[in-house]
Amino acid sequence: MVGYTTEEKLEILADAAKYDVACTSSGVDRKGKKGALGNSKACGICHSFAADGRCISLLKVLLTNHCVYDCKYCLNRKSNDVRRAAFEPDELCQLVVEFYKRNYIEGLFLSSGVMKNPAFTMEKMCEVLSLLRGKYRFNGYIHVKTIPGAPDELIAKAGYLADRMSVNLEMPTAESLGKLAPNKNFKTILDPMEKISGTIAQHRLAIGKDARMERSTINRYLGNSIFHEPGQIETSGGNLPRALEDNTSKKNYLSVTGEDKKLLRPFAPAGQSTQMIIGASGESDLVLMRTTQKLYQNYDLKRVFFSAYVPINEDSELPALGTAPPLLREHRLYQADWLLRYYGFRAEELLSEQRPNFNEQLDPKCDWALRHLELFPVEVQKASYEMLLRIPGVGPKSAQRIVNARRYGKIDFVHLKKMGVVLKRAHYFITCNGHMMYKTPIDENYITRQMISVNGRENWQVSHQNEQYHQMSLFEMG
Length: 478
Prior knowledge:
Helix content is 36%, strand content 8%. With 478 residues, it is α/β, with parallel strands linked by helices. The chain has 2 domains: 6-184 and 259-310, Aldolase class I (TIM Barrel), CATH 3.20.20.70; 324-478, no CATH class. The strands form 3 sheets. The protein has a 6-stranded parallel β-sheet with strand order 3-4-5-6-7-8. Strands 1-2 form a two-stranded antiparallel sheet. The protein has a two-stranded parallel ribbon with strand order 9-10.
C-alpha cells in the first residue's frame, strides 16, 4: 500500500466524498460547555447558509475509499483503478480538531467505502466517533453514514455518538438497485433505517417528548414492497402488505450493552436522512416521488436527498460518459420534495401514470397548476389557506398574511406584492375581487409558454452548473 501523508489522504478522501450529498441544516442546537470543545448550530452544515448569510461548514470526508463492493455508478468501486487511501481513526480525529481550532469547520460529515466487510468498517467509524467525543472532547456536529449490513450494536453506538445518521437508499426501486449495485439489497438498507427511526422514537418517549414515529412503528419491516409500482402489492385492507403484517412484533429499535451503556448522549437528535441517485436508471419522477413519500411516512426521515448522477464510469447499464448530469431535474425534485413536506401535496397529485414526469422548464407547483386549470383562477378574498398554498407564487407566509389581512378589508394586487406573493407566477391563477391582474386566457399551452419565457434565464443557470458538481441550495419556494 502506498504510504500517503495525512494531507495527501485528505485530498484523496475529501474528493472521493463529493458525490455523497449532505447539504443540509444540522437540525440540532447545542451550546458549548465547560471542558468540551466545539458546539453545534441548527442553522446548517456543509456550506449551507444561515438566515443572516453566514456560511456554515463541516469537514466532509471518507474514512477510506477502499471498497469490496462493485457498484456500477460509484467512483470508488473495487474494479476502478483509483488512488486508495484510509485514515487511521486518531489521525482523522486530529485533523478534525485542528480544522476546528482554525475555524475552518464546525463539524464532521463522515462516510466510508466498505473495507473488508460492513462490521469492520462500522467499527472503525465508531472508533473515530468515540475518540472525538471522549479523548478530544469534541462537542460539535457530527453526521455519520451508516454502513448497511453492520451489526446492530455498532449502529446503536454510532447513533449515541453522532447528531445525525443516514443510510443511503441509492436507487428508488429494488430492480435498479439489483442491476447497478449487485452487492446490495433493500433489506440490508431498510432494516437499519427502520431501527434507527424506532430508536429515535423510543428516546423521544423516554425523555417525555412526543414520538412522531407512531406510523413508522406500526408500519415496520416493509422491505422491498413499498418500492414497487401500484397494483403489484396485495394488501389486506391496512397499510401493510399481507405477507409482512406478521412482522409487527419484531424489535425495531437499537440498544447498547457493556461499556457502551455509559453513553449518555441523546440518540441521533438531528434525526436521519437518505440519498437517492437520479439519472443512473430509468425511473420516472412519479416513481421517485412515491418512494420519497413512503420514506417520509414510514421512516420519519428529516430529508431525502437527490443526487444527479455524474457519468464517471463506463458501463452499458449507465448513461454514456460525457452525458450532462440532470441538474435541472434534480432541482425540480427538490422543489417537489418541498411541496410534499410543507405544502400538503401528495405524489399522486403532482404526477400521474399518464404524465409521470415534471416539465423541467417549470417549477413543480406551476406544473401541477397547469395540469389542473379547472381549479383556477382562485379568488384570494375567499379561498381557504390550503388552497392559497397551492397557488404558484404563494408560500406559507404570504398565504397566512392574506388570510389575516382580508379580515379587515379588500386585498388588491399591490397588497399581494407587499405580502411577498410572486406575481409573475401567481397572476395567471388568481383574481382579486373578481378581477385578474391582466386579461389572460386560461389556457395551458399559452400560460406554459409565458412562464417558460420568464424562467428561461434561471433554468439555463441551473442546467449549466455541471462543471462544479455541487449540491444546489434550496430556494424561496412559492
